[in-house]
Amino acid sequence: MPAFAVKDLLAEELHLHLSLLTQNANLDLQITENDLNRPGLALTGFFDFFANERIQIFGQGEWSYLQTMSPDVLDENLNKFFSYSLCCLIFTHNNSPPDSLLTRAEQKSIPVLRTDLNTHKFILRISHYLDEKLARSTILHGVLIEVFGVGVLLQGKSGVGKSETALELVERGHRLVADDIVEITCRDENRLYGSVSETIEHHMEIRGLGIISVKDLFGAGSVRKNKRIDLIIHLEDWDQEKEYDRLGLDEQKQEILGVEVDIMTIPVRPGRNLPILIETAAKNHSLKVMGHNAARLFNEKLRKLVATGSDS
């Protein structure tokens, strides 16, 4: 399960405007949830379904409620609140927590942080940050390129021509994301994004040419840092014994990080124009996403013609 320490969150001071309020805080406590919790009900003494494993956000409402509580009720509810395992507490609007809360947090070594951002803006920023930090990830071999706005991941055995095909697509105006090693993360549970490490970004290895810089050769508009993966195209040497899909009705899926992605196989042999085939595949995928499936419409038309002919 992805996780990171509270000290990493605190390091995002410029973006999240966070400062540490507790002296005796365990900054190695792990954050494992990308959801946040506003503990309004817990502060009233209702702890059923209390999401204690999440970051606890004390907005203006929670802070104001703390100010209205009698000392006895506050002590009772805070004792119960800090009996749970907590990773950290964050106060927005630059509000200062009650001394009794800070005392209990220091006794438990729970970090209490503060930001001068308002609650809405802070939640937007930290939610985006958590989605990136806690995203499931993996690494695949292939080439990721954006073709007509579609993220196409080219796969196939070494030497089949993935990089050369991608290079020609870049020359035709499309954009390279990653060559050889594609780092993939899953966001929002069902969206896959591919990127490349900073060490090799914008570079390609072409047999016979060596390492080239796509950005330097074709300009800044020929590359991008990341792209959602919409379609996987598997390139393989043409096999005379294999029956390839000729109608496009047999839709295949490949699962990556629990997310299914459309995949198609394109056989490679001399004389086939792979770049134009991939461009057509990308355009056709866009049409399918918009609800227009040419293969199915054509098949339905043939069925109607056959049915009409048999009736006559």
Question: Could you characterize the architecture of this molecule?
Answer:
This protein has 312 residues and is an alpha/beta fold. The chain folds into 2 domains: 4-133, 3-Layer(aba) Sandwich (Udp-n-acetylmuramoylalanyl-d-glutamate--2,6- Diaminopimelate Ligase, Chain: A, domain 1); 136-297, P-loop containing nucleotide triphosphate hydrolases (Rossmann fold). Helix content is 34%, strand content 29%. It has 11 helices and 17 strands. It has helices at residues 6-10, 13-16, 40-43, 60-68, 71-81, 99-107, 119-133, 162-171, 214-218, 274-289, 294-311, and strands spanning 4-5, 18-20, 30-31, 36-37, 55-58, 89-91, 112-115, 136-147, 150-155, 175-187, 191-195, 203-206, 210-213, 226-228, 231-237, 252-256, 259-268. A hairpin with a 3-residue loop joins strand 12 and strand 13 (210-213). Helix 8 (162-171) packs across helix 10 (274-289). It is elongated and about 85 Å long. The model has no long low-confidence stretch (mean pLDDT 92).
